[in-house]
Design goal:
By secondary structure, the protein is mainly alpha-helical. The chain is built from six helices and five strands. It has two domains: 40 residues; 147 residues, no CATH class.
Length: 191
């Protein structure tokens, strides 16, 4: 019996050290050496203070700012510890009610806007934490943001164009805008 137990225990100990200690330390050190900003969470700092992460959405409700995709995390929106979709299917009446309510909020905030509401402004992403919106969603909000700031619409449109990112690898996804980066650019811009 001990001839079987001893090798099993040694193998268990060796594999625990290799996979539970050595491998994570090597991968962490490699990531911090090659991709230090990403390994630290892609944190965004302004005036020496961390204001968010480029990888996580955050709530913006001021009409002077661009609004992100809705968050599916509850009870706190954009809670990275509670990442996950709403799991509401397209035939679920709760999803339809939520979308209608979100459209009503967007229409109330900008009653002059007769454009179709981009789908990413009324539906949450699969993680509920998406930091990006489509360029169409940013343009949909441009008139409201310009009016709230007292800026010419062309100035807001120029900021959107400057912060638009193309599809990943030229074909994955659609062009997008990071909401935090865009709102920080708004805050830094002078009229």
């Amino acid at each position: 019996m001990s001839a079987i137990v001893r090798p099993v225990l040694v193998l268990f100990f060796v594999l625990s050290v290799v996979t539970g200690v050595a491998y994570p330390l090597v991968v962490t050190a490699l990531a911090q050496g090659v991709f230090p900003a990403q390994a630290a969470g892609s944190l965004v700092a302004r005036d020496g203070r961390v204001v968010g992460s480029a990888l996580l959405g955050q709530p913006f409700a001021d009409p002077r700012n661009f609004w992100p995709r809705p968050s599916a995390t509850s009870p706190t929106p954009y809670n990275a510890a509670n990442s996950g979709g709403s799991n509401l299917g397209p035939t679920n009446p709760a999803l339809l009610d939520a979308v209608k309510a979100r459209i009503a909020v967007l229409r109330a905030a900008d009653p002059q806007n007769a454009q179709a509401v981009p789908v990413d402004l009324v539906t949450a992403s699969a993680s509920g934490l998406d930091p990006d919106i489509s360029v169409a969603a940013a343009r949909y909000q441009a008139a409201r943001v310009a009016r709230a700031r007292g800026w010419p619409p062309a100035q807001v449109e120029a900021l959107i164009a400057a912060h638009a990112e193309s599809s990943r690898l030229g074909f994955l996804g659609e062009p997008r805008v990071n909401v935090l980066a865009l709102n920080l650019a708004l805050a830094a811009a002078k009229r």
